[in-house]
Amino acid sequence: MTALDRIREAQRILACAHAEALPQHSQRYRRVVRSGKRAAVILGMAILAGAATLSPALALPATHLTVQILNADDIYQGYKTVVVSAVDNAGNVDTTYSGTVHFTCTDRFAVLPSDGVLDENTGTGGFGVTLNLSGHQTIKVADTAHPNISGSAGVDVSVNGSPSYLKIEAPLVAIVNQPWSCIVDVFGQYGNGTTEEIFGIDILASDPNAIIPDSHEEMGPGFFDVIFTTLGKQSVTAYSTDPMFSVSSDTIDVDVLPEGSATHYALSTSSPATAGVPFNVAVKAIDDNGNVVPGYSGFVHFTATDLQSVLPADTQLINGTGSFSTTLKTAGPQKIRAMDIAHHGISTLLTVNVAPGNAASLKVEAPASVTAGTAFYAQVKAFDAFNNAATGYGGTIHLTSTDGQAMLPADFTLTNGTKQISAKLKTAGTQTITATDTVDTGLAATTGNISVGAIASKLVITAATTAVAGSPLTFTVTAKDASGNTATSYTGTAHFTSTDTNAILPSDAVLVNGVGTFNVTLKTATTVTITATDTVTNTIKGSSGGIVVSAAPASQFTVTAPASTTSGAAFYVTVTAKDAYGNLAKGYTGTVHFTSTDPLAVLSANVTLVNGIKQVSVKLKTPGSKTVTATDTVDGSITGSSPTIAVN
């Protein structure tokens, strides 16, 4: 099946539920969803196949994730196919990404995939997500080890179901003998809308003398005005009278207060809020007409969405008003609630925008491992004393590293408390990067340990500068990167050659932790080199320096003479000492004795050679084919004869 076929098959499966208008909880719907999960795998395979056509050679290590919802346009389909890719800042897919991704969603009822990994060859993966809550939902994916490597996508969903329960929306405080209004609405499972309407909603009150309107017999939500005649805690229950559906009822408690009582609070503040800086919140007890109730003397209890907040103790209002010192520490929109201790329905929320404080610390985030000489991204962030991003920080940052060869950017400032920088580390091993404020040097931070690995770009051969022909020579091959680090992870196979065509070279071999030691036997007395080359990537190679090879001890003579001569005429014979490999044995110091197949020959007396060579005068007298032989006077195995000489 081709990638296009996979996509078409997946689209067909995912369209089934919507095309057949299936009820969300029917058996057929569940079968289609199971098929949809299979479709997610199919689509993921197709995306992976397509991703392979991208150009990963340009990609730097991943800085974020991209999240694509393939069937986002189908708002009535809760099952979504999500494709996640690890990319760098330029949008290139990082095919080396090996992190684990975790899913979260604004839909608290969503069925999310387990933590997973992306395809090891393409940096992309396909997953299935089932959304159960109608409305705009956001799916977020983040690296489990590096949460800043993340991404998200939004989608609109409308997954309405059958009527499931009623919900009363109303104030929790009522004034005796005055209308109290409530709305009763109908919801499907998970709080979604419904695909069908119910007929008939009725309410009951615990106040036996309450004035309750007639039942709501129309479709849609019910609107009711109840008049309580009894002070104190009362309850109101809404229930369905439609026999077609099993719909859960809803009950709320209401505080019924005397006429003229406060029904809610009004909260205000005139000071801008900064994290950690106290400010005042004014509280007023208000009646239904918006007037302050001077006789109110209830106790106020405060809560806040900021878990770091410092709130006032429970306090009694005086003449219906009060001002209280409050400290919020978490930046962003925060909510403060003031609530009457005795009558919880008397309460109000105040939203306060909290600005971050001055920078109190820095943080430097970098990958746990990088490749020596390869650029990677790091994040420098400023925080206030309460761990809020110090968006107003205007200081200048200077970077240093334990790697003396590191390539770091020039001093820089942050934008909204953060800055992404590109850096290169060149020295293999464990390194760190430190960010320091150029004025306040106490404001500094250091990354965690960064493991710097080396990728082999060359082979380096270390060998002696001299050798003796025929004697083994030990040399070392080391795989190194462009910065000179040993590439301990190199697993390539090295092939050996030499400028000495007679050399005995080692067989192809794999280095261990980037290093290998080998023997070579050189045979030609001259200056030679040895070369090692990766058998797959021939650009990964290296050669030794020149090795001066000297001859081995003499093991033979060569005797040169003219091809013919005249009987009794003198001619010259040259004797050369050579080693077993034919190299001139300049160091030979023995004595040479001459003989001939001509018994009448006039031969030179015994001689010593000069730098392994000697020319002597000879006379042959007996006509015919004759030879001259030179032999060491001590070691008779060192000998040699001339070619045949024709004596005329």
Distinctive features:
Immunoglobulin-like, elongated, five-stranded mixed beta sheet, 648 residues, mainly beta
How does this structure look, described?
With 648 residues, this protein is mainly beta. It has six domains: 3-157, Immunoglobulin-like, CATH 2.60.40; 165-257, Immunoglobulins (Immunoglobulin-like, Sandwich); 264-355, Immunoglobulin-like; 361-453, Immunoglobulin-like, CATH 2.60.40; 458-550, Immunoglobulins (Immunoglobulin-like), CATH 2.60.40; 556-647, Immunoglobulin-like, CATH 2.60.40. It is 6% helix and 43% strand. The protein is built from two helices and 52 strands. A five-stranded mixed sheet has the order 16-22-21-18-19, with no helix packed on it. Strands 4-3-6-7 form a four-stranded antiparallel sheet, with no helix packed on it. A four-stranded mixed sheet has the order 9-14-13-11, with no helix packed on it. A hairpin with a 6-residue loop joins strand 6 and strand 7. The longest helix is centred in the first third of the chain and has 25 residues, at 27-51. The model is unreliable at 1-8 and 10-57 (pLDDT under 50).
